[in-house]
Amino acid sequence: MAFRTLLAAVLAATALQAVTVDVQNRYGAIHVVVADQTQITVEARRGDEQRPLTEASISRRMDRILVRATPQDSGPLDLHVTLPIGFRLEAETESGALTVVGMLPAARLGTETGDIRLSIPWSVARITLDADVKPPNLVLPKGQKFLQSIIDISGGRTLWRLRDTVPELAIVYGSYQVRTRRPQTIELTEFVRPPDWPIQFHSEAPALLERMLNGEGPPTPAAPAGSPEIGGSDALFRSDVRMVNMMVSVTDNEGRPVTGLTGADFSVRENGDAQRVEFAGSEATPFNLAILLDLSGSARQDREHLRTAAEAFIRLAGKNDRVAIYALANGLFHVVSPLSNDHEKQLAETKRLPEISGASPLYDAITLAYARELWNRPGERNALIVVSDGLDNQVSKQEAPSSVKFSKLVKAAEEMNALIYPVFLRSAERFNPKFATKARENMEKLAEASGGRLFPALSVEDLAPVFPEIEAELRSVYGLAYYPKDQDFNGKWRKVEIKVDKSRVNVRARPGYYAR
């Protein structure tokens, strides 16, 4: 059994980014693995033998968690530590090996003569490794460049230094400082992020967007069988033809949702040709509601208000609606909570939002937010709410802008099976009114392309008027399904017009789709 501390209560009250785990094992090895879990685990081993729990100790001092090997005889022990994502690490040994696998925001590592093996995503990590001499065995990851140099220090002594070549202005996750004397082996390998890893790099967005535009479908597995579909049990699905799903908002002239409509109340024309509506699902059909919070540096003082906003959106959801909480922070895409209807658990998870920091590749984050889960649910009612000032670094002309082109994102939004609702924070005007105007224009284009709409807010501190508007908007959304008469899916654009056979109603939907 792994040695576990009473860290559940500790972690609940502590921001992960503020916690440093300090591991010391004078003569034995230290093996650290970063995992998607909420608890620290520690094991003491000698070879393949697991040692008693009393041979390792864990204590806490302020924002540091101390892990110590306490062998009860003269033989060295190895410490195997599993850390949750987001913890910082300090690890030191004299003659033991050091092994780290995963992603750490920061690490300081030291060993006199032990081997060093680091499996890290090196394209987004920085490292400075100093040794008295270059090791006999040096293994570097393929496709990544590192610089080796000899550094003069006091008294005529020199150090061998290995460091990364990641560009100075690049978005990174992880800074590693390593000090050693005479190791036999230094081995750096690439950590391959698992598909369900809760942190994604913004550089992944362009390839996903191209898949959307090419009609290739999501690269991750489809939603599990039994997930609620737009068609429900009343729709007639046929395997020999292709179905088109559209989401439609229907409101009256005062903006109130029009409820109780059936498929017979809708008329659909595709390139002018009338289509038969097979199904129209309304508020009785569960929603998938993904919330993307912009925690980039431009909103530094707003973290607590954004957390409160996330809680409010969770409370808007019906008991069968699924909610996901995502965040853009430090230029990276974070999954705070995946789609779930366990809303009480999600309310607790909002306390673990990332710290506000870094660049604002917002368009990349929107792409990743849609691709994460909603893309896999084409037959369901999906909405993506983006709480942001809209200041992608493409707009503000700063370093590390989104990798995807905004024009391509708008084109993809025309086919996304999700309504995009930007909650636009006018607080961007305090930085640059010109940039704020452009940011709003872009967010409105994106919302319109998806069939959604923009909700303006003075600031993240003043979102209260927005919540009832969004709640009413979600109640107005119907999922429509029909089989196009033209089953030649040749990739061309098809204009779709949707109307409701009632007076004084407003219908809003995406303007069409590419038949792929």
Overview of this protein structure:
A hairpin with a 2-residue loop joins strand 21 (266-270) and strand 22 (273-275). Helix 2 (205-213) packs across helix 5 (362-372) and helix 7 packs parallel to helix 8. The protein is α/β, with parallel strands linked by helices. It is built from 9 helices and 33 strands.
Sheet of most strands: 9 strands, mixed
- Uncertain residue segments: 1-16, 222-239
> Quick check: average pLDDT?
87
Helix count?
9
Radius of gyration (CA) equals 26 Å
- Name the overall outline: elongated
Strand content: 35-45%
Number of strands: 33
Structural class: alpha/beta
**Share of residues in helices:** 10-25%
Separation of termini? 53 Å
Considering the chains and any ligands shown, give keywords for the structure:
33 strands, 36% strand
Write a brief caption for the model.
The two termini are about 55 Å apart. The protein is elongated.
List the helices and strands and how they pair.
Blueprint: E1 3-4, H1 7-12, E2 20-24, E3 30-35, E4 41-46, E5 49-50, E6 56-61, E7 64-69, E8 78-84, E9 88-93, E10 98-101, E11 107-111, E12 116-120, E13 126-131, E14 137-139, E15 146-152, E16 158-164, E17 175-180, E18 185-190, E19 199-201, H2 205-213, E20 244-252, E21 266-270, E22 273-275, E23 277-281, E24 287-294, H3 303-316, E25 322-329, E26 332-340, H4 343-349, H5 362-372, E27 381-388, H6 393-396, H7 406-413, E28 419-425, H8 433-450, E29 455-457, H9 466-475, E30 477-482, E31 493-500, E32 505-508, E33 512-514
Parallel strand pairs: 2-7, 2-9, 3-8, 3-10, 9-11, 10-12, 11-17, 12-18, 13-17, 14-18, 24-25, 24-27, 27-28, 28-29
Antiparallel strand pairs: 1-4, 4-5, 4-8, 6-7, 13-16, 15-16, 19-26, 20-30, 20-32, 21-22, 21-31, 23-30, 25-26, 31-33
Helix pairs in contact: 2-5, 7-8
